[in-house]
Amino acid sequence: MQKEFTDQVAVITGAGQGIGFGIAKELCRQGAKVLLNDENKKLASKAANEIRENGGICEPCSGDVADAGFVKQLVDEATGRFGKLNIAVANAGITIFGDFFTYTPGELQRVMNVNVSGTFFLAQHAARQMKLQEEKGTLLFMSSVTGHQAHKNLAAYSMTKAAIEMLAKNLVTELSQHGITVNAIAPGATLTERTLHDMEYKKTWAAITPMGRAAEIEDIVHAAMFLISPASRHITGQSLIIDGGWTSVSPPPF
């Protein structure tokens, strides 16, 4: 197998499980060195160990991306361990459902800090390092279909995902001259450890998705790998929806 990412170094946030872990696993399989972040220390260590057991080069780094200081440490650790940074995937995010009329300042601030601030400062610190290296790099943000279509009880979360996509678009003006691309992917309903806690999730989304099923992690990983690969070197400022056609018809899951 050709290892397309040999000698590449990546940071991935929120990668202890789910989509982030899937991206980390595939990057390592294709030769990259990965610093894998998760707020949960046990999850981060378990994920990194699994990748190493399969021959990958991966180190865990636990911490909360809502802390801008920690995000800088994350980038510094990646470059300190592996000598450079080529890829940064801002995957970490949280969802706090809540009625608009009763949503609290604390809930809003937490969602904003993790989803928006965590993405912004990872992009900032990673891009600084890439610029310093004078070596091309790529940034990938994790959005959502809810950044495109309204979803009950997700006003705050949806707002953050739309903001992330605008950030990707705006950073084209800041980063293109340095050879850095920046894009976002917007998954729809996806079968992960978190969503499968709901026993009806798979059945519900299969019924309302035109392609007849919710996404699997691999569906999102394949799109992510394209956007961080040399094959997409002339794509920047874009957001790619991966939802089996759901946003074209948008029936609610209730």
Structural class designation: alpha/beta
Integer count of domains: 1
* Assembly type: single chain
Low-pLDDT parts are none
Note the run of SSEs as H and E: EHEHEHEHEHEEHEHEH
Quick one: overall form? globular
The overall average pLDDT, rounded, is 95
Helix proportion of residues, in percent?
Answer: 40-55%
User: How many E-type strands?
Assistant: 9
What's the alpha carbon Rg, rounded to whole Å? 17 Å
- At the fourth level of CATH, the homologous superfamily is NAD(P)-binding Rossmann-like Domain
Q: What is the helix tally?
A: 8
Lateral strand order in the biggest sheet:
3-2-1-4-5-6-9
Per CATH, which architecture? Answer: 3-Layer(aba) Sandwich
State the end-to-end CA separation.
44 Å
CATH top level label: Alpha Beta
β-sheet strand percentage: 15-25%
CATH topology type: Rossmann fold
Describe the structure.
With 254 residues, this protein is of the alpha/beta class. It has a single domain, classed as Rossmann fold (3-Layer(aba) Sandwich). Helices cover 44% and strands 17% of the residues. The strands form 2 sheets. A 7-stranded parallel β-sheet has the order 3-2-1-4-5-6-9, with helices on both faces. A two-stranded parallel sheet has the order 7-8. Helix 6 links the parallel strand 7 and strand 8 (215-216). Helix 1 (18-29) crosses helix 7 and helix 3 (68-82) runs parallel beside helix 4 (105-133). The mean pLDDT is 95.
